[in-house]
Amino acid sequence: MKKETYLGVNVSPLTYEEIIHDIQKRMNAQKQSTIIAVNPEKIMKAQRDEQLRKLINESTYQLPDGVGVLLASRLKGGAIRERVTGIDMMDHLLRLAHQHAYRVFFYGAKKEVLKRAIKNIQSRYPGLDIAGYQHGYTANEQALIERIQTTRPHILFVALGSPKQEHWIRKHKDRLPVYIFQGVGGSFDVYAGEVKRAPAVFQKAGLEWLYRLITEPKRWKRQLALPRFFFKVLFKQSRIS
């Protein structure tokens, strides 16, 4: 699979539909797939954290989740045509599971949040085959592993925050009979109605970061990663292959 590389971090230049198509081929070949969302902030963190960079680059799909990555690709003549956000990728996978009767397992978030999220997901996708769920504050990790081994979900969503969730997936995936692993960050909170996404006009314009900055001004330090990212991309060699 071709990848674009920015500051040593791989990004998959695929659309939602192309990822879903590729995932189904991998499932038919009984191959596991891991999905991680990549944005400028995460790329900048990976400059200081070799383990994080390795974790991202070893994933099957690195989603271009961030308008900064999309613009960097255009600037460098890459092939990324659209943002692929983590939460929208999750929704595409839920739709896939609903259509093909794939079993799904949810792990992470607070107990009450997780239950509300599942209730809302079931309303959106009636009859979705939920193999199981577990909130993110369990002390018995071995029991969780055994439950996943027993229920054999096709898709596992892990919401422990990044990169903790990706480290968890990397640590356990070889022991789990799961085809698709996705770290979904705060997506359960959104499905539960605890956190609101930016209005559609901000999403379409790729300005969700601006909406979050307006509604959560304390995030301003995190947003400084965007100009630093562009500066480095402009003056460093990026690989398009």
Give the helix/strand layout:
Elements: E1 4-6, E2 9-11, H1 16-28, E3 33-38, H2 40-48, H3 50-58, E4 61-64, H4 67-75, H5 86-100, E5 104-108, H6 111-124, E6 130-134, H7 141-151, E7 155-159, H8 164-172, E8 180-183, H9 187-192, H10 200-204, H11 208-215, H12 220-223, H13 225-235, E9 239-240
Parallel strand pairs: 3-4, 3-8, 5-6, 5-7, 7-8
Antiparallel strand pairs: 1-2, 1-9
Helix pairs in contact: 2-3, 2-13
Structure, briefly:
One of its GO terms (molecular function) is N-acetylglucosaminyldiphosphoundecaprenol N-acetyl-beta-D-mannosaminyltransferase activity. The protein has helices at residues 16-28, 40-48, 50-58, 67-75, 86-100, 111-124, 141-151, 164-172, 187-192, 200-204, 208-215, 220-223, 225-235, and strands spanning 4-6, 9-11, 33-38, 61-64, 104-108, 130-134, 155-159, 180-183, 239-240.
Biggest pleated-sheet summary: 6 strands, parallel
Principal-axis shape: globular
- Mean pLDDT rating: 90
- Gyration radius (Cα, Å) is 18 Å
SSE ordering: EEHEHHEHHEHEHEHEHHHHHE
- How far apart lie the N and C ends? 10 Å
Question: Based on helices, strands and strand pairing, what is the structural class?
Answer: alpha/beta
**Count of individual helical segments:** 13
Beta-strand content: 15-25%
Uncertain regions spanning at least 5 consecutive residues = none
Total E-strand runs: 9
In total, how many domains does the architecture comprise? Answer: 1
